[in-house]
Specification:
209 residues; 5-stranded parallel β-sheet; 49% helix; single chain; alpha/beta; Rossmann fold; elongated
Length: 209
Amino acid sequence: MVRKLLTSKRFILASCFALAALVVFILFVHPFLAINRPVKADTLVVEGWVPDYVVEQALRELQAGQYRAVFISGMKFEKGNPRSDQHSDSAVAATWLVQHGVPSEKIVPCPVAAPSFNRTSHMARAVRERMQAMNYTPQGVNVITLGPHARQTLLAYNRMLRKTTPVGIISYPKNDYDPARWWASTAGRAKTIKDFAGWLKELFFGLRS
């Protein structure tokens, strides 16, 4: 009888702990991931895979800030992609910015062949290597990304650039769910959980150099 009672108490305690952990996760995971920490910067980086409305925000950031250049990360398109004539999503974003008044000489696409793992790390490294090839030394870098992908992105770019350059992050919310109630929609759950897993992957397995 005593053994059953102790087992029952342990089960109740474990259940309460699991419930509390779930509540904490729901309340805090999205603001933990979707951070905004811009720094004083003369260089902007845009993740080329972001949707058009985020590229529009990047244009506003360019117009408002004192940026010398904008580097656009991205993946090269595979054959069969309907936009393959533009070669990469970084080229697509670059074309849009030029069409909306950004001087082409200010834009630096940094496409990389799509890896099967650690895409954010590889894109960050491609940006760093492009800067090095140009002998370009930024005084500070702000990276624009989408919603809860921000913490993963900041980690990747910090690893590639922070030894010489301050790195900030600017995150614009995904427009198909309410960030304050991410758990209440399929889109919110899918994006948040995916990006939490992506941050963990970046934390433990991301490129270091």
